[in-house]
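Hello, quick one for you while I still have it in my head. Could you read through the record and tell me how the C-alpha cells relate to the sequence? No rush at all, and the record is pasted right below.
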Amino acid sequence: MFDWNDLKYFLAVARHQSTIAAGKSLGLSQSTVQRRLAELERAIGQPLVERRPSGYRLTKFGEELLPHAERIEAAVTDFERRINDEAHDLTGVIRVTCPEPIIGRMTKSALIERFQARHPKLRIEFVTSDRYLDLSKGEADVAFRSGDTDDELVGRKVADSIWAVYASRSYVEQHGRPAAVSDLPNHPLVGFDETLSMHRASIWLRDVAPEVKMSARTNSVLGLVYAVKSGLGIGPLPASLGDAEPDLVRVLGPIQELSRSWRLLAHPDLRRVPRIAAFFDFILAERELVKTILA
C-alpha cells in the first residue's frame, strides 16, 4: 500500500508541471517532492509522470488516476473542514461586497435569511462600491463579481453575467430603435464616466461608437439604469436589471463581448476560515436560487 499523503505531491506536480513550482506551492524543497513522488510510483508500480524539456507531463496512467486523486483530495478537505467547523464555533461577521442592485434582489429572495437561519451566530454585512474592493487589504471578506478578476483570488462560478442594450419605451416611440450594433453611433448613448473607463462596457462602447457624443455619463450601474429610464439615450445594462424594469426595452443583445461569469471570490488566506467556508458552502448549495438573483 502507498502513503495517502503522497497523493498531494502527485497533484502538485500535475498542476504545476514542475517539481520546483510544486515544492513552492507545498512549502517544501524540490528534492522532497521528487523523492515522495518516486516513492508513490514505486508503491503503485507504474510511472505517473515523465520529464520533458518543457517540464513534467502525466503519463497515460497518471492521467487516468488524476481525477480519482482529485476526488480523494476534495473528500479529505471536506472532512478536515467539518472537523474544523466543530472545533470552532461559527460566529462573527462576513463582509460581502457586490453591486448595489444585487443586494435588494438577495434580500427579497430571502437568501440571506436562509443563511442566517442555518448559521444564527453569523451575520452578513454588505459593503457596496462600484469599484472593486481589495480583498487582500481586508476591505471585504468575499465578493460576488462578474468580468475580469484578480488572479490572486480564489472562488467558484455561480451564474452567467449577461448584458444587452436597452432604451426606454418613450425613447423607442420617439426615436425608434437600432437595428444593429452598427446603428449605435446614430443614437445618443449613456455610459460610465472616466472613473470606470476600463469597465468592459466602457471599452465596448468606445469600440463600436468611437466618435459618438455621450448624452449622459455615470459612475454606477444604478446610474446607468436611471439614465436610460429617463430617456436621455440608450445604453448597455446587465440583463438582470434591464429585463426587470417595465419601462425599459431590450433593443440589442445579448452582447457577447460583454458576457462574463458571476463568481464568488475570496482571498486564499480566508477561503478556508470556517465562517467563510460556511458561506461558500451555502451559496454553492443554493446555486439555482443564486442564478435567479444574478442572471
The chain has a mean pLDDT of 89. Residues 163-258 form a domain with the D-Maltodextrin-Binding Protein; domain 2 fold (CATH 3.40.190.10).
